[in-house]
Amino acid sequence: MQNKPRSETSRKPLQKRPTYSIEAVDNALQLLQLLRDGGALRLKDAAAELGVAPSTAHRLLAMLVYRGFAVQDESRRYVPGPAMGVGPAGLSWTRLLRDLAQPHMELLSSRLDETVNLMVRVGTKVRFLATVEGGNVLRIGDRQGTVMPANKTSGGKAMLAELESPMIEQLFRSHNAEISGDTIPDSEFPAFLRELETTRNRGFAANFEGTEEGVSALGIAVHNRHGRVVGALSVATPATRFRKVFDTGLVGALRETCRQLEVDIAANPADAEQ
Fold this sequence. Notes:
Radius of gyration: 19 Å
Strand content: 15-25%
Number of helices: 10
Low-confidence stretches: 2-14
Oligomer: single chain
């Protein structure tokens, strides 16, 4: 596989956790991500996600409610409030999807010693729902909660490849795409369509430093029992190590992991909603 040249302006530096992070602020931001990506959150689940006492989680959620970032519904679940500015992922079972994917991601990460991500597509963007980091000293870090362009990420391209051409046109060539800044220029759109066709034929997509400098990834779409795409798994590595990982069976390992996850998804009653 050949690395694709990218302009310097299209690549972003790796995100790093601040040296002096403020725990309370970080916890509040994690709650916002959970609300956005899951659509609903119970107090006990919020406490478990953050690893804090329920009373601490309650105080954080109360502040989000006060500022309009969350509201409580009739069953006392917290849901995104009017100040969120972006709706939930649209999957009522994203938390379940994360739970189903977690053991598969851990096994794959352990096998490859690389970072594995779970993501869903929301329009022209992908949201990273979970990350299991590899054990190498030089590895790709946690991307949970990150939002990236679907047409740049490996998992995003794997999901887009299963859409019909008119939908791709609507997403990236329509007036709405211009307004939202998601338009793919005339000079690049034919090549993008060819890349999606190649992805469709081979069953996986690659990203060579398209989103972050020094990061390469390979992604495969995940389907429900009806054959519809519900997400994607990707394996991310430092660009300097990607070829070695690819040559030692990356595609086969990721494909088998996706197959096993799809079996679990199909066996879960909640999948009937999809």
